[in-house]
From TrEMBL:
This is Ribonuclease HII. Keywords: Cytoplasm, Endonuclease, Hydrolase, Manganese, Metal-binding, Nuclease. PANTHER family: RIBONUCLEASE H2 SUBUNIT A, RIBONUCLEASE HII. Endonuclease that specifically degrades the RNA of RNA-DNA hybrids. It catalyses: Endonucleolytic cleavage to 5'-phosphomonoester. The keyword Cytoplasm applies. GO terms for biological process: DNA replication, removal of RNA primer; mismatch repair. GO terms for cellular component: cytoplasm; ribonuclease H2 complex. Its cofactor is Mn(2+); Mg(2+). The lineage of its organism: Bacteria, Pseudomonadati, Bacteroidota, Flavobacteriia, Flavobacteriales. The gene is rnhB. It comes from Aquimarina brevivitae.
Length: 200
């Protein structure tokens, strides 16, 4: 059973991101404050849940949250400030939109930057330990998946509807065949042999 949150007394938000390891599309983060009486046996780290269950949970979480917010950070910004900074920026912008503002931030992972003097705790694999981080992971993942399904219509040859921009064999083959789009992260190593030098 996941615990509700990291602290006992304060108004705490959970935050998480999705799409950090993708070759295309935004990095998306969510922040959410759940009520103290919130309970769910289904809720878990979004990576452990089927797409069907994530889609089922999304409206339930949105309905019962005290506050929630989702933010996409786009390709240009990712390529300019790097993926780690873009992920943190997406989380911070989501937190910024919460009303009420949290008194504590529970962050999935091991990297974050101080935000508005609000204390934060980084929790490795936090989305498998705390319901508020798991809830943020669901909102981030489902929102990003929707975004990727939408841009799939524009460039169906990359099959983003299925791979969501992750570096699958099929996605890399399509990059090899068709080149890159405005949604690809040019700062990423898009093909395995992209950076090898022929020294002979």
């Amino acid at each position: 059973m996941l615990k509700l949150k990291y602290t006992n007394d304060s108004i705490e938000c959970g935050t998480d991101e999705a799409g950090r390891g993708c070759l295309a599309g935004p990095v998306t983060a969510a922040a959410i404050i759940l009520p103290d009486d919130f309970n769910s046996t289904l809720l878990n780290d979004s990576k452990q849940l089927s797409e069907k269950n994530r889609k089922l949970l999304k409206p339930l979480l949105e309905d019962c949250a005290i506050a929630y917010s989702v933010t996409h950070v786009g390709i240009k910004e990712i390529d300019t400030i790097n993926i780690l900074n873009a992920s943190i920026a997406a989380m911070q912008r989501s937190i910024e939109k919460l009303n009420p503002q949290p008194e504590h931030i529970a962050v999935d992972g091991n990297r974050f930057k101080p935000f508005r003097n609000i204390p934060h705790t980084c929790i490795i694999k936090g989305d498998g330990k705390f319901l508020n981080i798991a809830a943020a992971s669901i909102l981030a993942k489902t929102s990003r998946d929707e975004f990727m399904e939408k841009i799939h219509e524009e460039f169906p040859m990359y099959n983003w509807k299925k791979n969501k921009g992750y570096p699958t064999k099929e996605h890399r083959e399509a990059i090899k065949k068709y080149g890159i789009t405005k949604y690809h992260r040019t700062s990423f190593k898009l093909l395995p042999d992209q950076l090898t030098l022929d020294l002979q």
